[in-house]
Amino acid sequence: MLRLTDVHSYYGPSHVLQGVTLNVPEGGIVALIGRNGAGKTTTMKTIMGLLQCRAGSIRFQGKEIHGMPTHRIAWLGVSYIPENRGIIPGLTVAENLTLAVLGRDTADRDAARARMEKILENFPRLKERYQQLGTSLSGGEQQMLAVARAFVCGPSLILVDEPTQGLAPKFVMLIMEILSRINREDGMAVLLVEQNASLALDVSHHAFIMDQGVIRHSGSSLEIRENREIQKRYLGA
Fold first, then answer.
1. Residues forming beta bridges with residue 194, ordered by sequence position
2. Going residue by residue through the chain (237 aa), what tens digit of pLDDT does each one get?
3. Helix axes 169-186, 139-152, angle to 10 degrees
4. Topology annotation, domain 2-234
5. What is the chain's alpha carbon radius of gyration, rounded to the nearest angstrom?
6. Pairing between strand 63-64 and 189-193?
7. Is the dihedral of CA 78, 20, 236, 13 positive or negative?
8. pLDDT at 105
9. CA dihedral sign, ordered 110, 111, 114, 119
10. Ranges of each domain in the chain
11. Bridge partners of residue 9, in order along the sequence
12. What is the pLDDT of residue 120?
């Protein structure tokens, strides 16, 4: 579904991604893990066109998306939940969710309404706070809103950057359960960046380990969980 081949990205003169190759299969949950500063968030931003790669290929469902503007990548079926959640100030929960489907045709909006009902069943707190400002929600509730907004436009792939950062344990488990349920019930693929490697390996099927802008190891999540040498070398475990 998503394939990166020898991708290189820079911040100014700093060569951050140094030939990244990875793939996310249709319907899979793939974890991208590694220490702080390894290049994980940069990878997400490069996929979404927020940071242009200078070399390499990024293909989604067989189509080259390298060089496309971010909104076109989103319209192809890729949703992005950034590390800072991206809740729009001054908009209510309802307006933040509606924003995700602006510009879509009638059929898309009708389908989005059905997905909206489903996501509000999964997140009853959002239903209770539907007319409340999004930025007035707690951190866990804002993360729920970010996940709901990504889901409501019906993507084939969701990129999720550090979804549990700063959250209380009860919200951590809820967010991960919802991502797993979306994948299981709706077939949406997930590329997950998560600092808590153990948690990421619990919910994912496959994992790539990144260090200093390079993929150092990949394998099934179970294999990596059982390989203490790999964890010690690249994850500080």
1. none
2. 999 999 999 999 999 999 999 999 999 999 999 998 999 999 999 999 999 999 999 999 999 999 999 999 998 999 999 988 889 999 999 998 888 766 555 556 677 777 878 888 878 889 999 999 999 999 989 998 998 888 888 899 999 999 988 888 888 888 899 889 889 988 999 999 998 899 999 999 999 999 999 999 999 999 999 998 888 888 875
3. 10
4. Rossmann fold (3.40.50)
5. 17
6. unpaired
7. negative
8. 57
9. negative
10. 2-234
11. 17, 53
12. 83
Any residues with CB less than 8 A from the CB of 198 and at least 6 apart, and which? 225
Instruction: Give the torsion through C-alpha atoms of 191, 194, 200, 204, to 10 deg.
Output: 0
Which pLDDT score, from 0 to 100, does residue 106 have?
Answer: 53
Q: CA–CA separation, 5 vs 159, rounded Å?
A: 17
State both tokens at 53. 């790669």
CB 157 within 8 A of CB 190: yes
CA 3 to chain centre: 15
- H, E, C per residue of the chain: CEEEEEEEEEECCEEEEEEEEEEECCCCEEEEECCCCCCHHHHHHHHCCCCCEEEEEEEECCEECCCCCHHHHHHHCEEEECCCCCCCCCCEHHHHHHHCCCCCCHHHHHHHHHHHHHHHHHCHHHHHCCCCEHHHCCHHHHHHHHHHHHHHCCCCEEEEECCCCCCCHHHHHHHHHHHHHHHHHHCCEEEEECCCHHHHHHHCCEEEEEECCEEEEEEEHHHHHHCHHHHHHHCCC
Give the global pTM: 0.91
